[in-house]
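Example 3.2
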Amino acid sequence: MTSSPDRIEKIITDYDKEIKSIRSDLLKICWHMRGGVTYDEACALSFEDRSSIGDIIKDNLETTKKTGLPYF
């Protein structure tokens, strides 16, 4: 299978964006868990687990905003 240099460059750029997004999500999980999950442990999470944790974090942030309680 062959691809043009432009196509290969686009694939690499897309992968780079995806890697940065995943890394950001993992670091957010670690921060919100306050050390309850290390970066290495977060890296071992499945996509589904990361998505579920992300949803929980989002829900907690929304609840915190609605109630006016502090979020550390």
